[in-house]
Amino acid sequence: MFKNLFKKTKKVTEEVVYAPVNGEIVDITDAPDPTFAEKLLGDGIAIEPSDGEFVSPVNGEIINIFPTKHAIGILSEADVEYLIHIGIDTVSLDGEGFTAHIKQGDKVKVGDPLVSVDLGFVASKAKTITPMVITNEVRSIDKELNQQVSKGETKILTVHL
């Protein structure tokens, strides 16, 4: 009966993060928005998407989806906070071209659908490059840059806690 009470829990020391969309990974400093390029919201990567199907990059919980559906906050099982900001200047679209498949409080697994985006429409009105940043403090981040990635499959970050 008391066996589980005194069992040691293994401390998580790193988390693997997968691509949230198909496309090409670039350094966050190449994002065409100083808020992201200067890492004011946190460090991470940016992705130039090749399609508009965004999925969860980690197992966790949706802690925020903006009413405009262009930005999603996820708290991972390792207590790391991720912000996926779909495009630059997309807040002005007021949700047009975006279809959310999740809501705040939903539990997600790697590869679960988050948002579908009409990429052609968004590209005609804003930039499609998508920053993904870690908004809380971590020890370090290993990045897999300048490569083509497949959503839910390609490792893009290793976060050291």
CATH topology name: Glucose Permease (Domain IIA)
- Sum up the overall morphology in one term: globular
So, the CATH homologous superfamily? Glucose Permease (Domain IIA)
Overall pLDDT confidence: 95
Fraction of helical residues: under 10%
Query: What's the structural domain tally?
Result: 1
- The oligomeric state is single chain
How are the elements arranged and paired?
Blueprint: E1 14-18, E2 23-27, H1 34-37, E3 43-49, E4 53-55, E5 60-65, E6 71-76, E7 81-85, E8 98-100, E9 107-108, E10 113-117, H2 119-125, E11 130-134, E12 140-143, E13 148-149, E14 155-160
Antiparallel strand pairs: 1-14, 2-3, 2-13, 3-11, 4-10, 5-6, 5-9, 6-7, 7-11, 8-10, 12-14
Task: Walk me through the structure.
This protein has two helices and 14 strands. It has 161 residues and is mainly β. It has a single domain (14-160), classed as Glucose Permease (Domain IIA) (Distorted Sandwich). It has an eight-stranded antiparallel β-sheet with strand order 9-5-6-7-11-3-2-13, with no helix packed on it. It has a three-stranded antiparallel β-sheet with strand order 1-14-12, with no helix packed on it. A three-stranded antiparallel β-sheet has the order 4-10-8.
